[in-house]
Amino acid sequence: MSDKYDVVVIGSGPAGYVAAIRAAQLGLKTACIEKWKNKSGKGVNGGTCLNVGCIPSKALLDSSYKYHEAKHDLGVHGISADGVGMDVPGMLDRKNKIISQLTGGIAGLFKANGVTSLYGTGKLLAGKKVEFASNEGEVSILEAENVILASGSLPIAIPVAPVDGELILDSTGALEIDEVPERLGVIGAGVIGLELGSVWNRLGSEVVLLEAMEDFLAIMDQAVAKESKKIFTKQGLDIRLGARVTGTEIKGKQVEVTYQSVAGDEHKETFDKLIVCVGRRAFTDGLLADDSGVQLDERGTVFVNEQCATNAPGVYAIGDLVRGPMLAHKGSEEGVMVAEIIAGHKAQMNYDIVPNVIYTHPEVASVGLTEEQVKAAGDSYNVGTFPFAASGRAMAANDTDGFVKVIAHADTDRILGCHIVGPSAADLVQQVAIAMEFGSSAEDLGMTVFGHPTLSEAVHEAALAVNGGAIHIANRKRK
Ligand code: FAD
Ligand code: AMP
Predict the structure, then answer these.
(1) Which of 246, 191, 203 is nearest to 363 (CA)?
(2) Are strands 280-282 and 129-134 parallel, antiparallel or unpaired?
(3) 54 within ligand 1 shell (Cβ under 6 A)
(4) Domains defined along the chain, listed by start
(5) Rounded to an integer, what distance in angstroms lies between the CA atom of residue 53 and that of residue 19?
(6) How far is the CA of 108 from the centre of ligand 1 (A)?
(7) pLDDT digit string, tens, across residues 301-346
(8) Which ligand has its closest atom nearest to the C-alpha of 317?
(9) Percentage of residues in the chain with pLDDT exceeding 70?
């Protein structure tokens, strides 16, 4: 095996492995270096997403949802399910099997596409060289025409709540809790905090989320954020806003948390477990030699241009390592774009249309601009909304919380954004993302034929409502 490659990718999360596969498909000789080891010490691909992120969290969300539904929500369907029990280790086991299956799947895809998979640690040196320290301890130098950095991110640690792996956990530890804590504290009511809080709330924990900001889901459309908070509170999540955690103290088998309200009052709460979910930071530790030529920006992420090129010629960076939302699909699309560019093709990514989802139940999903952003830009716009309470399909499923909101430009009717809290919001918002990608107007979406009865009809009706033409709900009077 020669150690010269067209492309060397460092990191095999959803950004890196997709970049590697696409590069190989385009005829480029490609290697992908990955340092992640599973619990048995074996090198595995897939990064945060497959090992401790998107997939394991969704596995536990789905299991806990089924338990909760069986226990509490079947009576209305005329089904009695007595003696519903739970087996948390069984849930973890199922989650772990899914992880093994998917990470093994990446190894299979690498093989099928001719990507050389290298297990160990990569470090970018000057002149597009990569130092590779294998998991077996051998060090070699790989030469590359192009290097793609995709080393991802890590949970942010805060000194006031040091993770000990026992009582205070980060999101990774939270995926391994093997019995239901009576009282669970979560620092940060963001995407990950809400998802993990929901898992344990459904399984019976009393869950308190402490969030420093006064606004709930501040970057989301605020109408959707407000409705979501109402729904989550009704489900039993105790969401305390303007609550900044200032200290923790281990007291026997519990942890006491001190937090400060906006007014400055000090409060204390005691929990059986505490999960710290205050965001993630780009993972650059040990990635770059001093003379690599790659620069970081002021937030510690690798500085790149729109095409994900770094300051060092022939070196690209993608995924959580660079600016933009920390989302698996955002990194994957960057991976495809960069592989295409390296292969000499024209490629760009539409950063304006990246869907964003919180996988609670109901889900919260958005794409494009929020009403607050459109307003701030000074554009005139129309809004159409449709509640799931008026959807026959949602009623049939007994899943009627939430609504769809479509925002369109007042002059062109072009769709600017869509925000949903409701059943299958993730899949519904994707329909609007596709429409937006094709420059659709609200009228175009309104003229599209939607199957009946579907949850998608709520998207159709919201699009119709933008121009006062919704059929199954009274339309707002237009000025
Ligand atoms: P990562 O997935 O972090 O992969 C980077 C890889 O690089 C890692 O495997 C790491 O071991 C490796 N690496 C780092 N340095 C080196 C080195 N020097 N040498 C070799 N290898 C190296 N996103 C969504 O879109 N949807 C979700 O539902 C979702 N849910 C999430 C739930 C949780 C609990 C968490 C924590 C995250 C979630 N995310 C979700 C975020 C998502 O996981 C990340 O955005 C995504 O994994 C980033 O992909 P990446 O390839 O950039 O980095
Ligand atoms: P996200 O960025 O979606 O993962 O959300 C992380 C959340 O954690 C943000 O909303 C932060 O405001 C919140 N946060 C950060 N530090 C603290 C803290 N010390 N106490 C409470 N919340 C915090």
Answers:
(1) 191
(2) unpaired
(3) yes
(4) 4-155+281-342 (3.50.50.60), 168-278 (3.50.50.60), 356-466 (3.30.390.30)
(5) 19
(6) 19
(7) 999 999 999 999 999 999 999 999 999 999 999 999 999 999 999 9
(8) 1
(9) 99
Dihedral sign (CA 209, 212, 214, 220): negative
Residue 306 CA to ligand 2 centre (angstroms): 28
The token pair that represents 307 in the structure block: 């095409």
Ligand 1 binding pocket includes 150 (Cβ within 6 Å) = yes
Whole-number Å distance, alpha carbon 464 to ligand 1 midpoint, is 38
Which residues are 256's β-sheet partners? Answer: 249, 270
In order, the DSSP letters of 299-334 are TSSBP--TT-B-SSTTEEE-GGGSSS---HHHHHHH
Ligand 2: nearest atom to the Cα of 160: 19
Tokens coding 303: 């500085």
> Per residue in 108-145, pLDDT tens?
999 999 999 999 999 999 999 999 999 999 999 999 99
Which atom of ligand 1 is nearest the CA belonging to 359?
A: 28
Pairing verdict, β 273-276 and 183-187: parallel
89: nearest Cα among 198, 167, 169, 176: 176
Is any ligand 1 atom within 6 A of the Cβ of residue 317? no
Sign of the C-alpha dihedral computed for residues 446, 408, 420 and 277 taken in this order: positive
Q: How many angstroms separate the first and last alpha carbons of the chain? A: 71
* This prediction's pTM: 0.97
Residue 429's identity, in one-letter code, is: V
Among all bound ligands, the one having the nearest atom to the CA of 159 is 2
Q: Which helix (H) or strand (E) holds 247?
A: strand 244-251
pLDDT, position 1? 45
Name the residue of 48, 52, 361 to mutate for ligand 1: max ligand atoms within 8 A of Cβ: 48
Q: Which residue has the tokens 């601009």?
A: 369
The three-point CA angle 402-55-168 to 5° equals 90
Q: Specify the ligand 2 atom closest to the Cα of 210.
A: 21
Would you say the CB of residue 304 lies under 6 angstroms from ligand 1? no
Would you name the residues annotated as active-site residues?
A: 452
| pLDDT value of position 3 | 77
CA of 156 to the centre of ligand 2 (A): 10
Nearest residue to 307 (alpha-carbon basis) of 288, 335, 343: 335
Dihedral in degrees, nearest 10, Cα atoms 231, 237, 241, 246? -160
- Give the C-alpha separation, 476 to 467, whole Å: 9
Structure tokens at 173: 């530890």
